[in-house]
Amino acid sequence: MNRSRPATQWGDRDQRRIDILRAGEELLRSGGYAALRMRDVADGAGISLGTVYTYFATKENLFIGVFAEHVLRMTERLRPRLEEASDFVEVFTAAANEYRDGYPVFGRQFDALALVETADALQPAVEQGLRDATAGLIGALGEALVRAGYEGDLRPAMAVLWSEVTGLANHYTTERREFLDVSWDEAVAFAARTLGRGLGIVDPAEGRT
Amino acid sequence: MNRSRPATQWGDRDQRRIDILRAGEELLRSGGYAALRMRDVADGAGISLGTVYTYFATKENLFIGVFAEHVLRMTERLRPRLEEASDFVEVFTAAANEYRDGYPVFGRQFDALALVETADALQPAVEQGLRDATAGLIGALGEALVRAGYEGDLRPAMAVLWSEVTGLANHYTTERREFLDVSWDEAVAFAARTLGRGLGIVDPAEGRT
DNA sequence: ACCTGAACACCGTTCAAGT
DNA sequence: ACCTGAACACCGTTCAAGT
Protein backbone atom coordinates (compact mmCIF):
# COMPACT_ATOMS: atom_id res chain seq x y z
CA MET A 1 0.00 0.00 0.00
CA ASN A 2 2.92 2.35 -0.44
CA ARG A 3 2.50 5.08 -3.00
CA SER A 4 5.12 6.52 -5.25
CA ARG A 5 7.15 8.32 -2.63
CA PRO A 6 10.07 10.26 -4.01
CA ALA A 7 13.19 9.62 -1.95
CA THR A 8 13.87 13.31 -1.61
CA GLN A 9 16.53 14.14 0.94
CA TRP A 10 15.64 15.73 4.22
CA GLY A 11 16.00 19.47 3.80
CA ASP A 12 16.09 19.55 0.01
CA ARG A 13 13.48 22.24 -0.35
CA ASP A 14 13.79 22.69 -4.10
CA GLN A 15 13.16 19.04 -4.87
CA ARG A 16 10.47 18.84 -2.20
CA ARG A 17 8.62 21.67 -3.85
CA ILE A 18 8.78 19.86 -7.16
CA ASP A 19 7.47 16.68 -5.53
CA ILE A 20 4.50 18.58 -4.15
CA LEU A 21 3.73 20.23 -7.47
CA ARG A 22 3.92 16.88 -9.25
CA ALA A 23 1.64 15.21 -6.71
CA GLY A 24 -0.80 18.10 -7.03
CA GLU A 25 -0.89 17.88 -10.78
CA GLU A 26 -1.46 14.14 -10.67
CA LEU A 27 -4.49 14.66 -8.46
CA LEU A 28 -5.84 17.43 -10.63
CA ARG A 29 -5.54 15.23 -13.68
CA SER A 30 -7.31 12.42 -11.88
CA GLY A 31 -10.37 14.42 -10.95
CA GLY A 32 -10.04 18.18 -11.20
CA TYR A 33 -10.04 20.65 -8.35
CA ALA A 34 -12.26 18.49 -6.17
CA ALA A 35 -9.61 15.75 -6.19
CA LEU A 36 -6.90 18.12 -5.02
CA ARG A 37 -6.92 17.21 -1.32
CA MET A 38 -4.06 18.38 0.81
CA ARG A 39 -3.79 15.00 2.58
CA ASP A 40 -3.45 13.27 -0.76
CA VAL A 41 -0.90 15.81 -1.90
CA ALA A 42 1.17 15.05 1.18
CA ASP A 43 0.82 11.34 0.50
CA GLY A 44 1.82 11.65 -3.12
CA ALA A 45 4.82 13.79 -2.25
CA GLY A 46 5.89 11.42 0.51
CA ILE A 47 5.64 13.97 3.30
CA SER A 48 3.28 14.80 6.10
CA LEU A 49 0.27 17.04 5.85
CA GLY A 50 1.78 19.88 7.82
CA THR A 51 4.82 20.03 5.62
CA VAL A 52 2.80 20.84 2.54
CA TYR A 53 1.83 24.06 4.28
CA THR A 54 5.44 25.09 4.76
CA TYR A 55 5.74 25.17 0.97
CA PHE A 56 2.30 26.44 -0.05
CA ALA A 57 0.39 28.53 2.44
CA THR A 58 -3.00 27.48 1.12
CA LYS A 59 -4.57 25.05 -1.28
CA GLU A 60 -5.17 27.93 -3.67
CA ASN A 61 -1.48 28.80 -3.74
CA LEU A 62 -0.64 25.19 -4.53
CA PHE A 63 -3.22 25.10 -7.28
CA ILE A 64 -1.82 28.22 -8.86
CA GLY A 65 1.69 26.85 -8.57
CA VAL A 66 0.65 23.78 -10.54
CA PHE A 67 -1.26 25.91 -12.98
CA ALA A 68 1.71 28.17 -13.67
CA GLU A 69 3.82 25.13 -14.53
CA HIS A 70 1.12 24.05 -16.90
CA VAL A 71 1.06 27.42 -18.63
CA LEU A 72 4.83 27.28 -19.09
CA ARG A 73 4.61 23.87 -20.75
CA MET A 74 1.63 24.92 -22.82
CA THR A 75 3.53 27.93 -24.13
CA GLU A 76 6.48 25.75 -25.08
CA ARG A 77 4.24 23.35 -26.97
CA LEU A 78 2.42 26.20 -28.66
CA ARG A 79 5.35 28.35 -29.70
CA PRO A 80 6.67 26.20 -32.58
CA ARG A 81 3.17 25.73 -33.91
CA LEU A 82 2.55 29.46 -33.86
CA GLU A 83 5.80 30.03 -35.68
CA GLU A 84 4.88 27.58 -38.41
CA ALA A 85 1.36 28.97 -38.82
CA SER A 86 0.89 30.61 -42.17
CA ASP A 87 -2.23 32.60 -41.41
CA PHE A 88 -4.49 33.83 -38.62
CA VAL A 89 -6.88 30.92 -38.80
CA GLU A 90 -4.05 28.55 -38.00
CA VAL A 91 -2.83 30.73 -35.15
CA PHE A 92 -6.24 30.96 -33.56
CA THR A 93 -6.98 27.27 -34.01
CA ALA A 94 -3.68 26.18 -32.50
CA ALA A 95 -4.14 28.44 -29.49
CA ALA A 96 -7.73 27.37 -28.91
CA ASN A 97 -6.98 23.66 -29.16
CA GLU A 98 -3.97 23.91 -26.90
CA TYR A 99 -5.82 25.93 -24.33
CA ARG A 100 -8.78 23.61 -24.20
CA ASP A 101 -6.59 20.60 -23.51
CA GLY A 102 -5.87 21.89 -20.03
CA TYR A 103 -9.44 22.81 -19.26
CA PRO A 104 -10.72 19.52 -17.91
CA VAL A 105 -7.80 19.47 -15.50
CA PHE A 106 -7.71 23.05 -14.34
CA GLY A 107 -11.36 23.70 -14.51
CA ARG A 108 -13.55 26.32 -15.94
CA GLN A 109 -13.17 28.65 -13.03
CA PHE A 110 -9.50 29.13 -13.65
CA ASP A 111 -7.94 31.08 -16.39
CA ALA A 112 -4.38 32.29 -16.45
CA LEU A 113 -5.07 35.94 -17.05
CA ALA A 114 -8.11 36.20 -14.86
CA LEU A 115 -6.04 34.74 -12.05
CA VAL A 116 -3.24 37.22 -12.52
CA GLU A 117 -5.71 40.03 -12.01
CA THR A 118 -7.61 38.40 -9.18
CA ALA A 119 -4.65 37.25 -7.17
CA ASP A 120 -4.67 39.44 -4.12
CA ALA A 121 -3.52 37.30 -1.22
CA LEU A 122 -1.14 34.95 -2.97
CA GLN A 123 2.37 34.20 -1.83
CA PRO A 124 4.69 36.57 -3.71
CA ALA A 125 6.73 33.77 -5.29
CA VAL A 126 3.63 31.95 -6.44
CA GLU A 127 2.12 35.09 -7.88
CA GLN A 128 5.31 36.01 -9.68
CA GLY A 129 5.51 32.54 -11.20
CA LEU A 130 2.03 32.91 -12.58
CA ARG A 131 2.72 36.37 -13.95
CA ASP A 132 5.86 35.22 -15.72
CA ALA A 133 4.17 32.19 -17.24
CA THR A 134 1.25 34.28 -18.40
CA ALA A 135 3.38 37.01 -19.91
CA GLY A 136 5.20 34.38 -21.94
CA LEU A 137 2.00 32.95 -23.32
CA ILE A 138 0.45 36.29 -24.19
CA GLY A 139 3.71 37.48 -25.71
CA ALA A 140 3.93 34.46 -27.98
CA LEU A 141 0.36 34.95 -29.14
CA GLY A 142 0.81 38.64 -29.75
CA GLU A 143 3.86 38.01 -31.91
CA ALA A 144 1.96 35.42 -33.91
CA LEU A 145 -0.87 37.88 -34.45
CA VAL A 146 1.54 40.44 -35.85
CA ARG A 147 3.17 37.83 -38.08
CA ALA A 148 -0.30 36.96 -39.35
CA GLY A 149 -0.54 40.50 -40.65
CA TYR A 150 -2.38 42.40 -37.95
CA GLU A 151 -1.44 46.05 -37.85
CA GLY A 152 -3.92 47.56 -35.41
CA ASP A 153 -3.75 48.11 -31.67
CA LEU A 154 -2.53 44.89 -30.10
CA ARG A 155 -4.02 45.25 -26.61
CA PRO A 156 -7.75 45.25 -27.36
CA ALA A 157 -7.23 42.63 -30.05
CA MET A 158 -5.51 40.33 -27.55
CA ALA A 159 -8.25 40.93 -24.97
CA VAL A 160 -10.91 39.96 -27.48
CA LEU A 161 -9.06 36.95 -28.87
CA TRP A 162 -8.18 35.60 -25.46
CA SER A 163 -11.75 36.04 -24.27
CA GLU A 164 -12.99 34.08 -27.25
CA VAL A 165 -10.52 31.26 -26.63
CA THR A 166 -11.39 30.95 -22.97
CA GLY A 167 -15.10 31.44 -23.60
CA LEU A 168 -15.16 28.67 -26.17
CA ALA A 169 -13.19 26.35 -23.93
CA ASN A 170 -15.65 27.10 -21.17
CA HIS A 171 -18.44 25.62 -23.26
CA TYR A 172 -16.55 22.59 -24.43
CA THR A 173 -15.01 21.34 -21.26
CA THR A 174 -15.11 17.68 -22.10
CA GLU A 175 -14.12 15.82 -25.22
CA ARG A 176 -17.37 15.30 -26.99
CA ARG A 177 -19.44 18.10 -25.62
CA GLU A 178 -21.48 19.98 -28.18
CA PHE A 179 -22.74 23.45 -27.50
CA LEU A 180 -25.84 24.76 -29.22
CA ASP A 181 -25.49 21.74 -31.52
CA VAL A 182 -22.19 23.05 -32.81
CA SER A 183 -19.06 20.93 -32.53
CA TRP A 184 -15.84 22.29 -31.07
CA ASP A 185 -14.06 22.19 -34.42
CA GLU A 186 -16.88 23.96 -36.19
CA ALA A 187 -17.12 26.63 -33.52
CA VAL A 188 -13.37 27.26 -33.54
CA ALA A 189 -13.25 27.43 -37.32
CA PHE A 190 -16.17 29.83 -37.37
CA ALA A 191 -14.64 31.98 -34.65
CA ALA A 192 -11.28 32.07 -36.43
CA ARG A 193 -12.82 33.20 -39.70
CA THR A 194 -15.15 35.70 -38.05
CA LEU A 195 -12.47 37.30 -35.89
CA GLY A 196 -9.93 37.19 -38.68
CA ARG A 197 -12.25 39.02 -41.03
CA GLY A 198 -13.17 41.47 -38.31
CA LEU A 199 -9.49 42.21 -37.72
CA GLY A 200 -8.96 42.60 -41.45
CA ILE A 201 -6.48 39.75 -41.78
CA VAL A 202 -8.68 37.04 -43.30
CA ASP A 203 -10.17 37.37 -46.76
CA PRO A 204 -13.92 38.07 -46.40
CA ALA A 205 -14.61 35.48 -49.08
CA GLU A 206 -12.93 32.62 -47.21
CA GLY A 207 -15.28 29.93 -45.96
CA ARG A 208 -18.45 31.92 -46.34
CA THR A 209 -21.42 29.98 -45.02
CA MET B 1 -31.02 38.72 16.96
CA ASN B 2 -33.89 37.50 14.82
CA ARG B 3 -33.41 37.59 11.10
CA SER B 4 -35.99 38.34 8.48
CA ARG B 5 -38.06 35.22 8.82
CA PRO B 6 -40.93 35.00 6.39
CA ALA B 7 -44.11 33.90 8.14
CA THR B 8 -44.76 31.20 5.63
CA GLN B 9 -47.47 28.76 6.67
CA TRP B 10 -46.66 25.25 7.71
CA GLY B 11 -46.95 23.08 4.60
CA ASP B 12 -46.94 25.86 2.02
CA ARG B 13 -44.29 24.29 -0.15
CA ASP B 14 -44.53 26.79 -2.99
CA GLN B 15 -43.92 29.79 -0.80
CA ARG B 16 -41.28 27.92 1.20
CA ARG B 17 -39.36 27.24 -1.97
CA ILE B 18 -39.49 30.90 -2.86
CA ASP B 19 -38.25 31.81 0.64
CA ILE B 20 -35.29 29.48 0.20
CA LEU B 21 -34.42 30.86 -3.22
CA ARG B 22 -34.61 34.40 -1.93
CA ALA B 23 -32.40 33.62 1.05
CA GLY B 24 -29.92 31.91 -1.26
CA GLU B 25 -29.75 34.85 -3.60
CA GLU B 26 -29.23 37.25 -0.73
CA LEU B 27 -26.24 35.23 0.44
CA LEU B 28 -24.80 34.99 -3.06
CA ARG B 29 -25.06 38.73 -3.45
CA SER B 30 -23.37 39.25 -0.12
CA GLY B 31 -20.29 37.20 -0.93
CA GLY B 32 -20.57 34.86 -3.90
CA TYR B 33 -20.60 31.10 -3.83
CA ALA B 34 -18.47 30.91 -0.70
CA ALA B 35 -21.14 32.78 1.24
CA LEU B 36 -23.86 30.35 0.21
CA ARG B 37 -23.95 28.20 3.36
CA MET B 38 -26.82 25.86 3.87
CA ARG B 39 -27.16 26.81 7.54
CA ASP B 40 -27.46 30.46 6.61
CA VAL B 41 -29.95 29.64 3.89
CA ALA B 42 -32.10 27.86 6.47
CA ASP B 43 -31.77 30.84 8.77
CA GLY B 44 -32.70 33.34 6.09
CA ALA B 45 -35.69 31.29 5.02
CA GLY B 46 -36.84 30.84 8.60
CA ILE B 47 -36.63 27.05 8.60
CA SER B 48 -34.31 24.39 9.91
CA LEU B 49 -31.27 23.06 8.14
CA GLY B 50 -32.79 19.69 7.33
CA THR B 51 -35.80 21.27 5.67
CA VAL B 52 -33.69 23.00 3.04
CA TYR B 53 -32.74 19.54 1.83
CA THR B 54 -36.35 18.53 1.30
CA TYR B 55 -36.55 21.30 -1.29
CA PHE B 56 -33.09 21.17 -2.82
CA ALA B 57 -31.21 17.90 -2.71
CA THR B 58 -27.79 19.54 -2.72
CA LYS B 59 -26.21 22.94 -2.50
CA GLU B 60 -25.52 22.78 -6.22
CA ASN B 61 -29.20 22.29 -6.99
CA LEU B 62 -30.05 25.29 -4.86
CA PHE B 63 -27.41 27.38 -6.57
CA ILE B 64 -28.76 26.49 -9.98
CA GLY B 65 -32.28 27.21 -8.84
CA VAL B 66 -31.22 30.74 -7.86
CA PHE B 67 -29.23 31.10 -11.03
CA ALA B 68 -32.17 30.12 -13.25
CA GLU B 69 -34.28 32.81 -11.62
CA HIS B 70 -31.52 35.28 -12.33
CA VAL B 71 -31.39 34.30 -15.99
CA LEU B 72 -35.15 34.78 -16.29
CA ARG B 73 -34.94 38.28 -14.87
CA MET B 74 -31.89 39.09 -16.96
CA THR B 75 -33.72 38.08 -20.11
CA GLU B 76 -36.68 40.26 -19.21
CA ARG B 77 -34.42 43.27 -18.63
CA LEU B 78 -32.52 42.58 -21.82
CA ARG B 79 -35.43 41.94 -24.18
CA PRO B 80 -36.69 45.53 -24.55
CA ARG B 81 -33.16 46.80 -25.00
CA LEU B 82 -32.51 44.28 -27.74
CA GLU B 83 -35.71 45.28 -29.45
CA GLU B 84 -34.73 48.94 -29.43
CA ALA B 85 -31.21 48.27 -30.65
CA SER B 86 -30.64 49.67 -34.10
CA ASP B 87 -27.51 47.72 -35.00
CA PHE B 88 -25.31 44.81 -34.01
CA VAL B 89 -22.93 46.87 -31.91
CA GLU B 90 -25.81 47.89 -29.66
CA VAL B 91 -27.08 44.33 -29.42
CA PHE B 92 -23.71 42.95 -28.44
CA THR B 93 -22.99 45.74 -26.00
CA ALA B 94 -26.34 45.38 -24.24
CA ALA B 95 -25.93 41.63 -23.91
CA ALA B 96 -22.36 41.87 -22.64
CA ASN B 97 -23.15 44.55 -20.06
CA GLU B 98 -26.21 42.74 -18.81
CA TYR B 99 -24.39 39.45 -18.55
CA ARG B 100 -21.47 40.89 -16.67
CA ASP B 101 -23.69 42.42 -14.02
CA GLY B 102 -24.49 38.98 -12.66
CA TYR B 103 -20.95 37.74 -12.76
CA PRO B 104 -19.71 38.92 -9.38
CA VAL B 105 -22.68 37.19 -7.79
CA PHE B 106 -22.80 33.94 -9.66
CA GLY B 107 -19.13 33.60 -10.17
CA ARG B 108 -16.88 32.93 -13.02
CA GLN B 109 -17.25 29.21 -12.81
CA PHE B 110 -20.90 29.36 -13.65
CA ASP B 111 -22.41 30.11 -16.97
CA ALA B 112 -25.95 29.38 -18.02
CA LEU B 113 -25.18 27.40 -21.10
CA ALA B 114 -22.22 25.52 -19.73
CA LEU B 115 -24.38 24.43 -16.84
CA VAL B 116 -27.14 23.17 -19.08
CA GLU B 117 -24.66 20.88 -20.75
CA THR B 118 -22.86 19.83 -17.62
CA ALA B 119 -25.88 19.13 -15.48
CA ASP B 120 -25.90 15.40 -15.08
CA ALA B 121 -27.15 14.70 -11.59
CA LEU B 122 -29.50 17.59 -11.07
CA GLN B 123 -33.04 17.29 -9.84
CA PRO B 124 -35.31 17.13 -12.90
CA ALA B 125 -37.35 20.19 -11.92
CA VAL B 126 -34.22 22.25 -11.27
CA GLU B 127 -32.65 21.20 -14.52
CA GLN B 128 -35.79 21.95 -16.48
CA GLY B 129 -35.99 25.40 -14.93
CA LEU B 130 -32.46 26.14 -16.05
CA ARG B 131 -33.08 24.84 -19.55
CA ASP B 132 -36.21 26.96 -19.95
CA ALA B 133 -34.51 30.10 -18.68
CA THR B 134 -31.53 29.53 -20.94
CA ALA B 135 -33.61 28.86 -24.02
CA GLY B 136 -35.41 32.14 -23.46
CA LEU B 137 -32.17 34.09 -23.26
CA ILE B 138 -30.57 32.49 -26.30
CA GLY B 139 -33.78 32.86 -28.26
CA ALA B 140 -33.98 36.57 -27.55
CA LEU B 141 -30.36 37.06 -28.59
CA GLY B 142 -30.77 35.04 -31.78
CA GLU B 143 -33.76 37.11 -32.82
CA ALA B 144 -31.85 40.31 -32.18
CA LEU B 145 -28.99 39.04 -34.30
CA VAL B 146 -31.33 38.39 -37.20
CA ARG B 147 -32.95 41.81 -36.80
CA ALA B 148 -29.45 43.30 -36.90
CA GLY B 149 -29.14 41.91 -40.42
CA TYR B 150 -27.35 38.60 -39.96
CA GLU B 151 -28.27 36.11 -42.65
CA GLY B 152 -25.82 33.24 -42.09
CA ASP B 153 -26.07 30.09 -40.00
CA LEU B 154 -27.34 31.11 -36.58
CA ARG B 155 -25.93 28.25 -34.50
CA PRO B 156 -22.19 28.78 -34.90
CA ALA B 157 -22.68 32.53 -34.75
CA MET B 158 -24.47 32.22 -31.42
CA ALA B 159 -21.79 29.88 -30.09
CA VAL B 160 -19.08 32.38 -30.98
CA LEU B 161 -20.94 35.44 -29.71
CA TRP B 162 -21.90 33.80 -26.45
CA SER B 163 -18.36 32.59 -25.89
CA GLU B 164 -17.08 36.12 -26.39
CA VAL B 165 -19.58 37.56 -23.94
CA THR B 166 -18.80 35.01 -21.24
CA GLY B 167 -15.08 35.13 -21.94
CA LEU B 168 -14.98 38.89 -21.60
CA ALA B 169 -17.04 38.79 -18.42
CA ASN B 170 -14.60 36.22 -17.08
CA HIS B 171 -11.78 38.74 -17.32
CA TYR B 172 -13.68 41.65 -15.88
CA THR B 173 -15.32 40.16 -12.86
CA THR B 174 -15.20 43.23 -10.72
CA GLU B 175 -16.15 46.79 -11.41
CA ARG B 176 -12.87 48.45 -12.15
CA ARG B 177 -10.80 45.55 -13.27
CA GLU B 178 -8.71 46.13 -16.33
CA PHE B 179 -7.38 43.31 -18.43
CA LEU B 180 -4.25 43.69 -20.51
CA ASP B 181 -4.62 47.41 -19.79
CA VAL B 182 -7.85 47.52 -21.70
CA SER B 183 -11.02 48.76 -20.00
CA TRP B 184 -14.25 46.79 -20.11
CA ASP B 185 -15.97 49.35 -22.30
CA GLU B 186 -13.09 49.48 -24.74
CA ALA B 187 -12.88 45.69 -24.95
CA VAL B 188 -16.62 45.32 -25.49
CA ALA B 189 -16.66 48.03 -28.16
CA PHE B 190 -13.71 46.45 -29.92
CA ALA B 191 -15.29 43.01 -29.73
CA ALA B 192 -18.59 44.29 -31.08
CA ARG B 193 -16.96 45.97 -34.07
CA THR B 194 -14.67 43.03 -34.78
CA LEU B 195 -17.37 40.39 -34.57
CA GLY B 196 -19.87 42.56 -36.42
CA ARG B 197 -17.45 43.08 -39.30
CA GLY B 198 -16.60 39.40 -39.30
CA LEU B 199 -20.26 38.49 -39.52
CA GLY B 200 -20.71 41.02 -42.31
CA ILE B 201 -23.21 43.20 -40.45
CA VAL B 202 -21.01 46.10 -39.41
CA ASP B 203 -19.44 48.45 -41.92
CA PRO B 204 -15.69 47.69 -42.15
CA ALA B 205 -14.97 51.42 -41.97
CA GLU B 206 -16.70 51.96 -38.61
CA GLY B 207 -14.41 52.78 -35.73
CA ARG B 208 -11.19 51.72 -37.42
CA THR B 209 -8.28 52.01 -35.05
C1' DA C 1 -46.84 14.99 5.16
C1' DC C 2 -43.82 18.29 6.76
C1' DC C 3 -40.35 19.87 9.66
C1' DT C 4 -36.46 19.72 13.31
C1' DG C 5 -31.65 19.77 14.82
C1' DA C 6 -28.21 16.73 16.67
C1' DA C 7 -24.82 13.92 14.69
C1' DC C 8 -21.73 12.44 11.11
C1' DA C 9 -18.20 12.91 7.46
C1' DC C 10 -14.95 15.33 5.10
C1' DC C 11 -11.23 18.26 4.51
C1' DG C 12 -8.53 22.82 4.93
C1' DT C 13 -5.54 24.62 8.35
C1' DT C 14 -2.83 25.10 12.70
C1' DC C 15 0.65 24.20 16.11
C1' DA C 16 3.07 21.95 19.90
C1' DA C 17 6.33 18.53 19.69
C1' DG C 18 9.94 15.75 17.38
C1' DT C 19 14.68 15.23 14.71
C1' DA D 1 15.80 24.49 10.16
C1' DC D 2 12.76 21.08 8.72
C1' DC D 3 9.26 17.94 9.42
C1' DT D 4 5.29 15.37 11.91
C1' DG D 5 0.45 14.24 12.79
C1' DA D 6 -3.05 14.94 16.21
C1' DA D 7 -6.42 18.35 16.90
C1' DC D 8 -9.45 22.01 15.53
C1' DA D 9 -12.86 24.44 12.64
C1' DC D 10 -16.05 24.60 9.21
C1' DC D 11 -19.74 23.13 6.57
C1' DG D 12 -22.43 19.78 3.40
C1' DT D 13 -25.45 16.04 4.29
C1' DT D 14 -28.26 12.54 6.81
C1' DC D 15 -31.84 10.64 9.67
C1' DA D 16 -34.35 9.35 13.82
C1' DA D 17 -37.64 11.81 16.14
C1' DG D 18 -41.22 15.40 16.59
C1' DT D 19 -45.94 17.75 15.10
What does this structure look like?
2 copies of one chain form a homodimer. Chain A is an all-alpha fold and 209 residues long. Chain A has 2 domains: 1-55, Arc Repressor Mutant, subunit A (Orthogonal Bundle), CATH 1.10.10; 59-198, Orthogonal Bundle (Tetracycline Repressor, domain 2). Helices cover 68% and strands 0% of the residues of chain A. Chain A is built from 10 helices and no strands. Chain A has helices at 13-31, 38-45, 49-55, 59-84, 88-101, 103-106, 112-118, 124-147, 154-171, 184-198. In chain A, helix 9 (154-171) packs antiparallel against helix 10 (184-198). The longest helix of chain A is centred in the middle third of the chain and has 26 residues, at 59-84. The model of chain A has no long low-confidence stretch (mean pLDDT 89). Chains A and B meet through helix 7, helix 9 and helix 10 of A and helix 7, helix 9 and helix 10 of B. Chain A binds a DNA duplex (19 and 19 nucleotides) through helix 3.
